[in-house]
Structure formats: C-alpha cells, structure tokens
Protein 1
Amino acid sequence: MGTVTTTYREAIRAALRDALQRDPRVFLMGEDVGRYGGCFAVSKGLLQEFGPERIRDTPLSESAFVGAGIGAALGGMRPVVEIMTVNFSLLALDQIVNNAATILHMSGGQFSIPLVIRMTTGAGRQLAAQHSHSLEGWYAHIPGIKVLTPATLEDARGMLWTALQDPDPVLIFEHGSLYNMGGELPDDAGAVDIATASVRRPGRDVSLITYGGTLWKTLQAAAELASDGIEAEVLDLRTLRPLDTGAITASVSRTRRAVVIDEGWRSGSISAEIMARIIEQVFYELDAPVARVCSAEVPMPYAKHLEDAALPQVGTIVATARQVVRGHD
Amino acid sequence: MTDFLMPSLGADMERGTLVEWRIRAGDAVKRGDVVALVETEKGLIEIEIWMDGTVESLLVSEGATVPVGAVLATIRGSEAAAALPGAAAAPPVVERPPAPPLPPVAGPAPRAPAVLAPSAHPAAGAEPRRRVSPAARKRALDLGVDLAAVTGTGEGGAVTSADVERAAAARREAAPAVPAPADRQAAMRRAIAAAMARSKREIPHYYLGTHVDMTAALAWLAAENQRRPVTERLLYSVLLLRAVALAAREVPEMNGFWGNDVFRAATGVHVGVAISLRQGGLVAPAIHDVDQKPLDQLMREMLDLVQRARTGVLRSSEVSDATITVTNLGEQGVELVWGVIYPPQVALVGFGKVIERPWASAGALGVRPVIAATLAGDHRASDGHRGGRFLAIIDRLLQEPEKL
C-alpha cells in the first residue's frame, strides 16, 4: 500500500469529494464555496465536478443558509454547510443552538438533524480580532451537537464521513494555520472514529492535553522537553464534545501531572472543563497542580509581534511543563 | 535503564541472601530467565527476570543479605518494564536538581506563571501547611510512611509520590540486618507463624464443606491408567487440582488478592499446592495456568514441583504467583481439612481422604468412594453463597472426569 503527498486542505477536499460521490444526498453550501472555490480554497474545482445543484453559493447571511441546511437535513438530505470563520458563525448561533441542537428533543425524538457544519477557527495569520478567535469551546458547552477538531491529515480526511453518518448535528473546526500543512497519507485513507482522543506521543512525566492548531506546537514542545530529560505525553483530544474523559484521566493517572494547551481564552473555557474533570476524577493521582497555557484575554491583535505574544507558543508550553514537573522552569 | 530489585516472594518475606549470580555484566537476558539464586526462609529460590535487555551492572555481591526492594542490578532494557510484577515501581534514577528553598509566602516566585504562584496567605503566625501532593498522601498511606520525615523535591518543596517511594526504600535499607538464621527450619517456622498469624488476625474466614462422590472420577482414572505406561499414570489429585482451577475461573471471587481494602481478581488461575517438607515446614508453590493445561502436563508439573520443593530449588514466580491454594491431607488419613488462607489470597480448598461410605442415591443405599471438599473463604472478598456455588461446581466437574 502506498502513500500520497497531500495537504490538510487537499485532505478535506478529498473527503468532500468522496462524500459527494458516495451519497447523492450530500451537498455543500456556503459563502463563495462555488465559483470562488472557497475562501480557503478547500472546495476549489468541486463546482466544475459536481455542478451548481450540489455546490451552492449562498448570500452573505449565515443565519439564513445554516437555517436552510437544517431544513434540508429535516427533509432527508445530508448537507455540509461551510461557514467562513467561527467569528461569523455567531450570526447563525440562533439556528445552531436554538434549532439544530434542540429539535430532536423538542419534537419528542421525531426529527433528527443530520447536518454537518464546517468552519475555520484560530489565529496566527494576522487576520485580527474579527477572523481569529477560537470559539469551539463555546460550542462544546451545548448539548445536542458534537464538536470535532481535526488536527492531522488523517482526521482532516476521515472525520467528515463519520460526521455525515451521525444522526445529529456535528460541527467541524478546521484551524486556519493548518490548511497548508503537508504530509503523507495512505492511498486508502478513509473514515476515522470521532469518539476518542489519541495519544500522539507517549511519555511518563507529564500529560500535555491539547487539540487542533496547538497540537503541533505541543508536539514540538514535547520534543524540546525530551532533550531536557522530561518525557511528555501528548494527548490530542480530537473531539471536544463529547470529551473522551477516560483518555484524559488514564493519561494523567500515568504521568501524575497535566498541562492543558488551548488557543481559547481561559475564563469559562474548555480548558477549565478539562481541568475540572481531572480534579473531580483523579485528584488522588496528582503530584502537582494542573496548569494551562491559553491565549491572552484580549481580542486577538493584528500586529505580528502582539499576535505572537497573545497565543500559546512552544516556549510557554515548555516553561509551563517544566514548572509542573520540576517546580521551576 | 531499569533497576532489578530483590523481589518479595510472599507477604512474609523481608530480606533475602544473594547466593549466586547466574548472569554477568554485559549478558543479554530475556523475560523468564533465571538470573540469580536467593536464599530465603523458604529455602533456595531461583529468581526470574521480567524484562528483556542487557545487564548493565551487578550491584550486590554474592553472600550479601539485602532487604526486599533493594536494587540488585541495573538492566538496560529493550522495554521499560518494571523489575517484577506487583513490586513497587523503582524510584526514578534521574538525578533531580535540589529543590530551591521554599520561597517566602509573601510574594510569588518571579518567573512562575500566575496560575502556579502560591495563592493562599496563611494567617499571621500560623505554620504554613506542608505541601504534599494528593498522590503522595495516598502513597504514604499505602506504604505507611511518615510524611513529616520526607524531603520534598516538587514545586516549592512539595512532597511528591516519588519522594514518598524514595523514603520508603531508604527505610527498608536502614532496617537492621538480622544475622542470617543459623537454623533454616526455625526461620521457616517463624515465616509460617507470621503469615498464618496475619491470616487469622486479618482475614474473616468462613468455612463450607461438602462430600463429593468420587465413583465416576476413580472409575475413569482406573480405565485411563490401564491404557497408559506406568510412568505416565495420573493420580486423582491432579483431577482435584484441575477441577478447582476450572471452578475458580467460573467464580472469580475465589481467585485473586485482597489488599488496600479491595479485592482484585487475578487474570490467570495459578494454583498453589501445599507441600509439606520432610524436615518439617510447608511451602505452597504455584502451578501456573492450571485452567489452561491438559492433565498430562499438570501431572508432570506437579511431580516436578513436589520433587523440587523437597530436594531442589523453586523459582520466584512459583513462590509468589499463586492465586488460590489447594491442600490435600488425605494421605495422612485426614477426613476433613479446615484450612487457613495464605494472604493476600482469598480462598483455600482442602481435600481429605477418599473413604468408602454408605451413600444414598436415587432411593438406594450403596457403598461409594467419597471425598470431603472444604473451602476456607475470605468473607471480605466473597460470601457463603458464592463459596457454596464454587464447591458445587467442583462437585459437578468431578462427576464428568472425561471433560477435565
């Protein structure tokens, strides 16, 4: 079996093409997904291949086209709705939270919403405070939806199909800094599970718990820590709702120490939830306070040096892990 | 690199004498190899290693007596396995830099992120509470270590679980070495006394007994042995052993260990066989995986075990692995055995002598060979109802000997 050289962007495109070919109920809808090929060029070429019925450009109205997606899902379709960035998804919050997440329950289980919403998240590209935030943790607060955060080529390629098989709404957050990431993917790469976290690097001294765009910074930090004699375990959460709590507590029980790395803000965040579960479930396994590396609590700055300073970086992760393991950095 | 430790070959063992090394520095070893001969109260034991790797250095010379848990050798491993299953993990060999002195509580350390800085200011004049991690508190309780005497190497001088383990190891090292007992029989008597006293002190035993009709088993055995050459004949005790193992698999509460207030079921069924020694005393080494092995193999292993227990040398895994014990005192003419459980196991099965008895069955009275099977059970791990079921399964299995 061979491999192909690809990118995160191409892996998502391959997943979309595969879904469009395999299931006639699948269609893609969003701003500029057709003629322009997608704001991040993910859907480039799909309009030519599948035609305007299945690759649909929409007006600039998130509330309207997410609502249309919910209607289509109710009507038996399997829509994939693209929202340009998570910041803009707030315009559709009513549709996502008040409709998509609730209709199954409010209809007494009669109607499910098999809808997939993809959107870009995260900073690092000097797109400033209206295009750079990481609000996936907010969505993870909402019962009735699933929240996926693919960080690897395998997950970019494989999560979409599994999400489409789910009877309930699934949100997929693609970190903007990953689209150009290249690598090798097996020829036959396909669907992956969306229920479990994955240990991307085993280690015995501290658990570095992260997801999405910060996975790669965290892996780099783990490599630096190794050269300093600290064996860090890197856990990629992959899915923020439902959280794979068992994987988190198992890792922390082995290492007795944890650092949560999250590009979101710390107050009222998914990182706070992860720490709470650690304290609730494995308090007696801990050898040090659980620590966090999050973004500074400011709207994301535009200036490069300020944006860098606001985001979790390899150096901060290394220093925090050292502090947790050794009591000093 | 992994430390190879003096193993604990039973709850009662505190130290052992390294009689002979079977390896040298630079030798390759693999899991299961016998690497040393150690003298304990139970006699000479061959010690096996539980990892693959290369011997880095031998740290204890032949003739030395060291406490359980002392480092005997270091192994450069091809896997980071512990030196022995069940033994406490070796303290990390990494030298940690000495912890900085506890910073004054008034201000956070300058470079520490705010989230890690001391957040509570103790009331003026009050002693600040000692920093001990939750894991270290739990470990100290398990090992009986006094936290006041432990040096902390964690953040701000906090005591970590590794610190507690180091303190426990140091305490064992410091234990005064008693002179090697001149009289091994006396030492074995003391070891048995300690284990049995602990058993009766800690284990709330319950006792159940039943009579098992051995007609079918003995008839099958006689027919079977007629077909076999003399050297391969089976004894009925091997049927009993096998029946106990299969029953233990069906009633897992009988097969495992009690410790730290919980019962842990064992994954394999390793039956300890009580063997009395000619010079006096008793050992109960295990035959491994009795539920998985055919009768022929069990017969060979049982004879080998008895032979080696009485004249030769047992292996460390045999001495420490038993998950349930069987004692068979029928040879001595005993009819009923009310046994004492060997801690931390939770059950002991006793068999008496096969006796011909008047036996009523299907409304008729006949004479049948009958054996009394008894169970001493740990009431913390199981109840009489389950124990009764366990004995009933043994009975049922012995009625169909061809299936054993």
Protein 2
Amino acid sequence: MKVLTPTVLTYIKVVLLVALVPAIIGFVIVLAERRFMGFMQVRLGPNRVGPKGTLQGLADLVKLVTKEDLTPARAERAVFFLSPVLAVIPALTALALIPFGPSIRLSRDVSTPLYVTDINIGLLFLLAISSIGVYGIILGGWASNNKYSLLGGLRSAAQLVSYEVPMGLALVAVLLMTRSLSLVEIVERQERIHLWFVFPGLVAFFLYFVSGVAETNRNPFDLPEAESELVSGFNTEYSGVKFAFFFLGEYTAMIIISCVAVTVFFGGWLAPFPNVKALAFLKIIPPFAWFLIKAAGFLFAYIWFRSTFPRYRFDQLMALGWKWMIPAALVNIVIVAVAILATPGRTNGLVTLSWVFGVLFVAMFLLARLRQALTRRDRLAAEPAGSRSGLKG
Amino acid sequence: MTDENRAVEHPEVPTLFDVQEMELNFGPQHPSTHGVLRLVLKVDGEKILEAIPDIGYLHRGTEKLFETETYPMGIPHTDRLDYVAAATNNHAFCLTIEKLLGVEVPRRAQLIRVMLDELQRLSSHLVWLGTSGIDLGAVTPFWYAFREREQILDFFEEYCGARLTLNCMRIGGLPFDLTPGWVERVAEFVDDLPARIDDYEQLLTDNRIWKKRTVGIGVISGEECIERGLTGPLLRASGVEWDLRRAQPYECYDELDFAIPTRVNGDTYDRYIVRVQEMRQSARILRQCIERIEPGDIRGKVPRVIKPPAEEVYASVESPKGELGFYCVSNGTNRPYRMHCRPPSFINLQALPRLAKGHLLSDLVALIGTVDIVLGEVDR
C-alpha cells in the first residue's frame, strides 16, 4: 500500500508551510532585517544571542511568549482576542497557493509539486483572502478601546481599502498577458513565451509593488503603526502572544506580496537567461532556490525602504493612491491591451512593449539622476557664503 | 467620555454623519514629545482643532535655586536647563555675571568658549536632526547624526570630563585649559564635517516624501515671529536675519567670518534647511577659531569671593535654540537677589498651538520637532 498518496503529501506540505514560515520569519527575516538595517545605519544590530545573533529569534520568541497577556479593562474582549487570529490565518492560508517550484521526485514513483494547491482562480483568491487580513488590524484597533489604536485602525481601513484597488488593477494588466488566474499557469506561460512579465508589465510591476508595500503597512506607508505619531497604532494595547500574532501576520503578508511579485512578474521558479549558452550554469541552481532568491530580493527591498524613506502623511497617501496610482493602472491596462491586440496570437506586441517600457524607464531614471544632481548643485550654490551681513542690535 | 464627545458645528462642511470632536492626550509619555510635554488635543478625525500645551512636568525651581547659592554655584544648575546644549547655558550665565562685575575675559578663553559653543550648537542641531527625522519616519539619519554627536561629546569629555552636563565655564573664563592635541582632533573633525552633513542631506533634503511632509507645514511670518518673541532658527527661517552672534557680538564673534542662513517661507522645510546650513557655518567658525588660537590666560581677574555691585543686568547668547539670556538682580551680597532665565524653548513653544491648528496629527509631530524644544529649559 502506498503511504504517500497525494492527500497525505498535501497534509505534509501544509504542516511544513505552517511550521516553517513562522520559523523562517522569526529566525531569518527578522534577524536579516535588523542586521541589514544595522549595517545601513552604521551600527551592528543584534549579534549577541548565538553565533552572529542567529538565535535572536528564539530570544524574541521566549520574550513574547512569557510576557503577560494583557487585555485592557474596557476592551471588546471577544473581538480583541479574535483580531490577531484574523490577521494571521488569511496570510497563512494564502501561502497554500504560492508555487515555490515545479514537481520534484521524492522516490521512484512518487513526485509532488512544490505547492499545496493550484486552483484556477488563484490570483483572485489571493487578493480576496489578503483583504480579509485587513479586518484583523481594523478590529484590533477598534476593540482596544484606545484612541490611538482607533486612529491606527481607521488609517489602516482607509489605506488598505484604497490600495487594494491599484493592486488589483495592476494585476489585471498582467492577466491580459497570462490569460489565466492560476499561479502555476502564469509561471509556465512565462517559460513558454520566454519573457518574464516584468518587462511588458513594468508599470504594472511598480504599481503592484508599491501597493503591496502599502498593503502590508510597511515604510514609507506604515501609517497605521506610526510609532512616532500613534505610538504603534492598532497594536498599542497588544502584548505577548497576541502581539506576536500581529507581527507574524505582517511578515507573512510581506512574504506573500514578495512571492506573488516573483510568481507573476519575475518568472517564479524559472532561471534567468534560459537560452544564453554562457549562462547555462545558472540552471544548476534548483528552481526552488531561484524562487527563494528572488523572493529574498523583494524582502530586502522592504528592509531597504524602511531604512531610507520618511513616512507619508495620511492624506498624501490617499492622494497618491487615488489620484495617481489608480489612473496610471487604468492607462496601463489600455496600453497593454493594445499591445496584445496589435499582434493577435503572437507575443511580438509584448516584446515591443517591453522595449518601449525599458527605454522609457532608463531615460526616466537618468533624467531623475540629472535633476537630482542639478538641484543639489543649485542648493550648494545657494548656501550662504557671505560673512558680515545681518541685523545689528 | 461624557462631555468630551461634544458635537461640533461645521457650517462649511455639510455632512450626513454626526461629527464629533475627540479629546486626545498627547504625552507626557509619548515618543515624539521629546520629553515630558503634554498636549491636550481637540481633534476631528485626524485634523487638529486645538492644541494646548500643558507644561511643568520637569519643573525644578531652577531660578529659585540660583537665589539660594553663590554666583559660581549657579553654573552647574544651568547645565540642567537645555540639557542637550549645556555649554551655551553656562556661557549665558557666566556672561551675565561678568557683565555685572565688569570682568574682561582673556582672548584664549574667549576663543575656547566660542569653540565650545559651536561644538555644542552642532551637537544640539544633530540631536534635533536625528529626532525630527525619526518623528517623520526617517530612522537612518538619526544614527548618522549621533555618530558625529558622539565625537563631539568625546571632545567635551576630554576637555571637562563630562559629556552632557558640562559645567565647562567659569565666571571670568574657563575652569581648565585645553588638553594637548584637542585642537588638532577638533580640526580633523571639522574637516570631515561637511561631507558628513552631505550624507544627511542626501537622505533628506531632496527626498520627495521629506519635502511633502515639511514644505508648507507650520508656516509663520517674520512679523508674527517677532510679535511672539520667537528667536533662533524659527525666526531666521521666516526671513529675519537676526542672530545675536552678529547683532550683539559677544566674545570674539565680531572678528569671525560666518553667514547667517535665512530662508523666506517660514515653514518646517525652511527651518530644516536653516539648521543644516547653520551646522556648516559652525564648522566655518570652528575652523577660524582653530587658526586663531594661541597660548594665554584662561581666566580673567576675578575676586575670590564674588560680590557684584547692586545692579540689574541682562546678557544673552545665541543658543542653538534661540536667544538664551539671564536677567540678574544683585543686591551686593554673594548671592543673586533674583535670577531670571529667558529660555528660547519656552518662548518658542508658545508658537506651537498656532502652528498646529488646522494641520493633521502627523504634522503635529513634525511641528514639535521643528520648534526644537528641550523640556528641561521649558519647565526649568
């Protein structure tokens, strides 16, 4: 009798995901974040617990678990208890859809794909389930019966609802190219047409990732927390394990956003340059590792943002979303649709679009650098060098 | 929540909902109030209708303490006023007593005082830069700023043994001469400084988000600044070229070349630019002092027991935050009859309710940062 039936394998994968992802978050991502931020900020970051600080996650876990689990006296107890759960469960559920890699052979006659399930409405399901996670934050802020938490909850309600829209619209542009909502199919199509969707979908990618950062409440869009304004906002009143759940939810959401970016725009588990002979050695790295490397790149971008940018103000954030990103996403849909319809049945339109976007991107980048240099020069020229001016008293 | 949630009238905005204003306690325990400042806010959503500062959590009766102790014993108390800029506090106090006594400070002591002042200005501005960056969510400039501040505090420590509460001046001069090599080390630091300031500016000055958060926030005109008695970078960012180092030169400031950075818009961004430019000017001043310094006395002719004539004097210096002055009433004994401090933080703080009105909660944080208060000086 075969033990490793597909059902059993699925259960194993689910257990592995639920067990491994929080562990990876605690031991790798948080540590990496703190260490990298440390290096960017001319300091060392945590390096005391274990070799090079590798066991910091354990210390944090012990601290969080042993902390007193407080519930404010006038909090809405049931909701207060439920909202951290509500923040974690959808994020972990969404992990089931992420295709980490193609099938691998476990033994002679058993092989299994490196994802829990592939449903034909995958992307839609992801968007839907990730917006449920928002409720955790909103309700948590409300149930705390704390004015700062309430403001944090309100901010996140408005912010997350507004950034769902450009994110969805950005993905629509990619859907026109993929013709499928299944994440596995999206990756396979990128393999077939030898084109990662990031190139024809450059605008969509930027819109997606910016919205993604806003969705996960990270810098420069971390307004619901806003340590310096709202004293951590929605999670002010949370301590111990409940706080750890919010924390876990946030980081899992970051992973989801990164993984979806990799899957949809960066060819998922595919190795780059499949046709270049000189770079054939890249194929030695297993597909699963490619996926992780790409996802790690995005997580690094998150950390990088955090140590670089100031925080947006609430109304500016909303203006950016509604007045700028949503129109841009709509225009982008039209452009991509035209590119596809111009060459029906072939991908020439998409390749042309990639070149156009690529050239525009490089040109804009150079222009921005030029402008930066010029304003800097002007500023330094305007620096007062005079010596004896000023009012006399 | 009984009478707190009063419905307010918004005749200009018709709304379907019952608009309620909320009273929000901002501080005294809040990460962005830079100490124990408490603000009672009336907010409509996130919009600030009213912000009332509630001060006094750090009141220690410093002015009364001056009366109970001899003149030299007052100097350490001044350290605790603006505790991120102790040297200028010491300076203002000593200057007042020297004016009362009519004592001449030797040239070497004057130059060292100016150097200590300017180092202190740098370190105070660095604290301001770092913390107000954090207030707006930019965490990294803080670490850069504190890297340099640490060096400055090392200089202070080498000079007088203390890093924060310096007690580094005496009536008529200085307590110690410089340690060997101090000037050279400061010179090295000053040479590095412009590049370091470039680092901070790289992160903030042209940053879109930083500009969005600061340009047009808390605008105040030069006239209003003068009406409210605001001094320091707040006044200069509103276009008034008023700096006591130039307006009423003390020590040897009148022979030094430095510009007084001013801007015209009087918003948070301009105050930021003014302070950053002041840091560059401080470096210039330090360089000139280093060139001019020569051996000599460090203490003027001061009687052993200080019993000034029965007079009233006021003397002030340009502290990093504005005009810091002491008003001393002497009755001919060895203790002041009355000592009053004109603290720039306290007077500048008065502008906060006016600046904050109508802005959002997030801007309030920026505004507390831009006024640059130290609660030790506000409450005394």
Protein 3
Amino acid sequence: MSDEPQRLPARRDVALVEVLDRALGAGVVITGDVVLTLADIDLVDLSLRLVVGSVPTLRGPAAAREEPGVAP
Amino acid sequence: MADQTFAWYVYCVVPAAQVPPLDDLAAVDPGFPLESVTARGLSAVTSRVRVADFGEDALRRNLEDLAWVERTARAHDAVLTRTLAADAVVPLRLCTIFADADHVRAMLEREHERLHDVLGRLRGRTEWSVKAHADPRRLERPAPEPGVAGAAPEQTPGRAFFARKQTDRELRERAASLATAAAQDIHDDLRAQAVEALLLAPQDPALSGRTDTMLLNGAYLVERDREPAFEAAVARLAARHGESGIEVDVSGPWAPYNFVATDEDRDERRATAPARSA
C-alpha cells in the first residue's frame, strides 16, 4: 500500500433505485468465459421488470439520449 | 454448471497491485472473502458464490426477490466504491459469474487490451449523478403577473369554463417548456464541467417512490481534481432553479458504471443497435 491517504468517498444512504440504476443498468457485460450474466436471463417475465423499465440498458446499448426530455 | 458447487462472482477490474484492502467488506455471499485474480497487469476483484444461489435457475428465482436484489446490488456497489481508491476501475454488470478462477484469468487474458484501454480512459475520473425533479403542479402554477390566471368575474359560466380550460392548457404547455429548458440548462452547464456526459432514462417512480416528475437523470464523468468545481456548479444550478420549484440533487463519486464503453463499442452500437449485449 502507498503512503498517500486514500480518499474514501463520503457516500451514505444512497437510495436503492440509484444503486440499481447503475449496478443493473450499466457496467461492462462480459460474454466469453462467463457462465452467466444478467444479459442471459430473460427478465421480461420477472417482477424485476419494474427495475428494468427504468433501465433499458440491461440487455442492449446505453439508454443515452442526445437531449434531455420531460418524463410523462 | 450443474455438477458444480461454487462459482466466481466478478465485481470489477483494476490495474494489478492496486486492489485496495477489502477485508472489512462483505461479499455478495458474506460467507466468502473478497479476493483478486490477476493476469496481464489486471486484477479482477472476485468472491466465491454458491451455485445454489447464483446458478441460472437460482438467480432467476432470486431476482424476483427485491430484498435479495437490494442486498446483492449494495454489496456489489460497496466493493466498487472501495476500488475508487485505485487509479481506475472498470465496473462489471451485476451478477457476472464465472465457473472458476481459471475462467476469470482467461477473461483477463482475452479482454486485456480492451480493459487496459478503458482503464486508461477512466484513470483519475469518477462518475457523478445529477437529477432534477419538479412538482408539475408547482410548475403549472399561474405566473404572478395579472391577466394570465382566472376568468373575468362578469363572464358567463360557460365562457368562464372555456377560458379556464384555455388557461390550464397554456399553463401546462408553459410548464413543459420551462421543464425542458431547465433540464437543458442544467445538463449543458454540467457537461462543460465533465469529461463525458450521458442522459439516462428517467427512473421509475414506483422504485424511486417520488411523486414529482424527473426532468433530468444525468451521468457525468468528472476528473477527480475537478470534483469540487463540479459540486459547486451543481449547488449554483440548484439555487438558480430552486425558485421555479425544480429540485437538483447530486450523488457521487460513483464507480464509472456508465462510462465503460470503448470508442469501438460505441461505433458498433451505432452500427448494430439495438440487440447487442456487450
């Protein structure tokens, strides 16, 4: 370990939706060597669709849009 | 995987020899320690999991259980947050499972170029989340100047009704354009403070528990030494838009979950959208 002080992020009590938005909706998807990724699981029938509804990136490309819009 | 008892869960990849101390953190299965698997100058942060919990059928079942999902996602994120102490980290998607450590090593061997590329691009940078919300009723509140709201008292009830409908429609339209302009203003300002910026889909109110409207769900990749300036910019924007009833919130630093795509990935995405999973 180095001597320089580690900067520990001061992040607490983050809402679940924040964590799921990132852990489920983003991050590298590895396809080779892997036995299982969430991308292999058809989530259409799962109640987790509630989550996936807000994170359409789960099985496809990033849900990035060019310009902000207003949610319905 | 049927005849196997254990599998390897991989959280993220960091430059070799930069794995921070992880002894005090709980793994996704708290019965096993976090350990790293190293190859090609890269360390994967892993922990053992039981196939009985993380095998395909089990995972399908467990994903139905929001409490299980929450526990797992929070453990996953806690490991990633800790690895922000390294120069850079490449987060993997929740529940990326390998048969054994050899397969993790094989993945590092096979993907090392891409992973080194991404680590290089993410070095010294963290992800920040900024959201803007507004209560539509507050945005639609009539402007203070006279003449916009309310019908004149001498109108007949019928006329007053149509005048009110007209006014309501104008107020709704005004609210929508106010909201769009505010979201654009916030995003443009923060994009200028960031290395990269992305607009994410608005979060589901059923999960966030919010009754107001999400105008902006932005993700920003920020240089570590620019973090104070970024937070100051958010505070300034929150003050500017607070008067019109728009709430601006920031959270971070996050591991750069939303900024792991290489240029190559992006080109491919543009070419093949949307049925791609890598």
Protein 4
Amino acid sequence: MKLLEIYELEKIMEQHTERLIRLAFYYVRDLQCAEDIVQDVFIKFYDHQQNYEERGELRAYLSKLVTNKSKDYLRSWTYRKIQVQQKIFAKQPVIRRDMLVQQDEQTLIENAILALPLKQREVLIYFYFEELSVMEIAELLSIPESTVKTRLRRGRELLKPKLQHIEWEVLLHE
Amino acid sequence: MSKVDVTVIRDLSESKKRVIGNVVQHIEQRDNKKRVWRWQYSVISVFFTACIGLFFYSQLQLDNKLLLSSNDLPILDEDEMSTMLNAYNPQSEQSRNELFQTMIEMDAYYAYALSKGIDINHKLEDKDRLMSKQNLEDDHFKKKLANLELSVDEYVEKYIEPFNIKGSARNELLKDYQKRYENSFPLHAYLGVKKEAMDYLTAKYVDRISYLKQKYQFSLDPKDAYMSGTKYKTGYVVAIEGDRFLVVSGEVKDLIGHLSNEEMINQKENGIWYPLHEVKDKITVGNMVSVTYSMQERLGEYGFVANLDEIKIEK
C-alpha cells in the first residue's frame, strides 16, 4: 500500500481523535492517560501502516488498537503505580454546587457504567455508546457472541440498583 | 459510584488539538533525534564496558544484603527485584524499565531520608500504607505469586510492607521539601524530592546500581519507561519563582513585568509551570525555550503544571 503522508494522517486524526479519546477514557477513566494512549496509537499506526489492510475498516482497526493499548495500560505496573500515587496526592474532589445540580441523568448513567468491572463495562460501552452489534463486539474483543450477551445481561443487572429511578436504556438511545 | 467525572469528555476539542499537535510534532522531530543518537551508541558501549569491570568488584559485596544499618530495610535488593520481576512479568521494555525505576526510586527515598537523619516510622497504620493486601486481590496476580511459591500474605509481609515504609520515608521527605518551598505544586514537590533522593542514591551506590543494571538489563532514564506521551512547548520564560518557572507561548515578551503571571496565562490562553531544579543556572526571564515534557496537571482554565524532560534555549 502507498504510505501515508503526514497531512493524510492529520486528516484521519481530525476524523477519529475525539471518538478514540472517549473510547480510551471509558477504559482507563483518566483523560490524560486516554490522550496519551490515542497519541501512541496514531504514532504506532503511522509507523506500522503496512499492518493495516485497506480492505478492513479504519474505524474498527483504530478502535481495536485503542482497546488493546488501554488494556495493556490497565495491566501495567504504571497503572498500579499511578493508583498508588493518586493515594499519595489524594486531593479533595472539587465539586461545585452548581455542578451537582447540573449533573444530568446522562452523566449519572455514564458514571455508573464507568464504575462497573471492566468485563461488563466494555461490552456496555460498545453496545450503547459505540452502537456496535453483539456480533461486531464479539469480533472486536475476540470472544464468543454468547459471552457478549452474558456480559451485557450481567452489566444491566449491576446497573439496575444504581439507576433505579432512571429510564437509562431509553436515555442511552436518545 | 465511581469517583471518575465523566463530564471531562463532553468537550474534547482541546484534547483533540493537543493529541494531533503532539503526534505531528513527534513524527517531524524524530528524524533529527535519530541523528543525535548515533554518537550516543559509542558512549553507551563505553559505559557498558565500564559496567563489566564494576561487575567483578560488585560480586565481592553481594553475598549479603545491602543494609544501611542493622535494623534497616535492605535496599537495591536482588531478591526483591527478582521476585517483583517474576510477579509482574512486564511484557515490554518500557514496562520493565518502569518496574525497576520504581523499586530503585523507593529505595532512594528510604536511603536519602535516613542519610538526612529523618525518623522513619516502621510501624505503619492502615491510613499510612500506599499499597495494601486489597490492591493485590486479583486471581491473575495470585497465580503469579503461587508460581513463586508465595502466598499473598507472605508477599505482603516480605515486599509490600517494606515498600510502604519506603513510601512513608517519601512522605517525610515531601514534608521537608515543602518547608523549603512552601508554595510548591504537588507534582513539582514530588519531582524535586525524587531528584534529590535519586542524586543521592546514584552517587552513593554507583557500583551496586551498575551491577544491577547489567544483571537485569534495565534503564534508569525515565524516557525509557512506559507511556512516554511526549509533549512539546515553545514559548518565553516569563517568570521564575521558588522551585518553578513559567513558559507562555505567543507574543508575550513586551508583557513581561506588566502583567501578573495569572493575567498573562489568561490573556494568552496558555502557560505551563515547569520544575526549576535541573535548569536553575541556565535560564533567565525573557529566554525563548523549547521544552519537551510528559506529565501534566491542569491548573486553572488555561494553565498546566508539568515535568521537564528536555529544554533547549532558543535565544
């Protein structure tokens, strides 16, 4: 394949960066780390363009790279170290009253999903936020469709008690 | 409920700009860097040759653990390094470097605090512990420990509790540092203490560290650790105070001395505070500098506090 020029990479980044940062954030739950992950993914993509076959869909390919990198990060010693450091520099969260008032139901739902264990969190993210089908999620995560369905069901069960007063499935499809 | 605030990803336009800018700059600057590295290979070869010589000398000292005094914890301990390496089994070179750098960093805090005569608490309460048994409760990790014939309890007693005590030494050093630099930002206080402790350890135990580097093949250069995420900034040094200096991009030279630091940051909608220790005698207000950095924390609407990986004074 013809190798990309930087300006072509910039066009791709224009199109995909925000979505990919959001995706990485759903895994690592830290904006700075999510930015770093996406930055590294684009550099890797640029350096190893020959690994990308044009017949594949770029969106899915980049999503897969971000997912893998995010999982690597969660497994890494760095992540454990940062958890420890956060404990050292634990700041009192600055929550302004107006922020609390403004925290809408969508935010509550997303926060509840972010609090789920990784296995359930990732399938819910792909299903509701990325709007992928069960089959597509199974392919992306290299797991059987039945496992995706089980994790979706378990995720919904875990969300129920936290979101008792919210029609959360309706809101996610608005 | 999670402590994570999901509202930070509502508007990602600034994040997007940062990522695209960093990727493009990284790719463009890489060719220049590659040229710079060529002469460094020969320096590294000389360095490793020197390490081999030091290895034989070090062998004579390694039968016993390196104890600072009879009641103290061992530092630069091979047993600890081997166990941690096997328990965490880092898959990349960066992860491996990160692991060794962390262990040596913690040893540095402990040795440096003792050298300063700081009293370190060896009997910690739960609230003082950086890492507890709960941090290790995952099946995958338990399996790794089982392969090493260690239970979680044994691992905690032998390795995590000393780690926590070394963390307590760091906290004492941070308190000491913050007496010297009262308004220091937490990130800069951490980096300042880390530099002082590492300078002490690497000077005092040069042979031992060379031996360990040779044996375990790791790098102590933070740039060789995981998640570099290098970022770049070019701008003017507009203030130097305490343990930090402020760099603002844009047409700011004529504003220096006329606006407060905060006014400058707000008017130019950017500004990053960097730690001063490494460059105290090299920069002055008004210098134009190009900085690379990899850690940052937000400060107000437009400002950041960051670390400093490299700096080039342009004029």
